[in-house]
Known about the structure:
By secondary structure, this protein is an alpha+beta fold.
Amino acid sequence: MTRAQLTEKILDIKREKAWSWKYITEEIGGMSPTMIVGALLGQMKHVNPLAAKAAKLFGLSEVEERMLNEVPYRGTTMPPTDPLIYRFYEMVMVNGPAWKALIEEEFGDGIMSAIDFDFDFQRVANPKGDRVQIVMSGKFLPYKYYGNEQGIPDYGFKED
């Protein structure tokens, strides 16, 4: 069995039992819903205790449980073809340069981590159509200026 086949099996069971992602994430627990769903969809790994809980919930074999604990090959083809995922790509393509400029002005020379990262969303009622509110928080990682000489900072934190 491949990881993609295991994902399809999990989705089949979810459909068959008419489970919501909310139900599944509450049953497994231990991490954010994004991490749990991402692992079940093959984009993250579950730590052993959560892989065991997921395997029990979905009635998976020991081998399938171990697959949930493996580090996956992450990502998708670019640009993404799913319209919702493509909109995130579009947001970054259009707004990315401004976000980069604003973040670097505030923090210095570096990046926002996509590994040490939190994500949350909620539905916001609006008479013109409900809105999706997204909150992302990533650790700032300054570039290291290796090979720097005396008087040159070690890292790209904002200089006063």
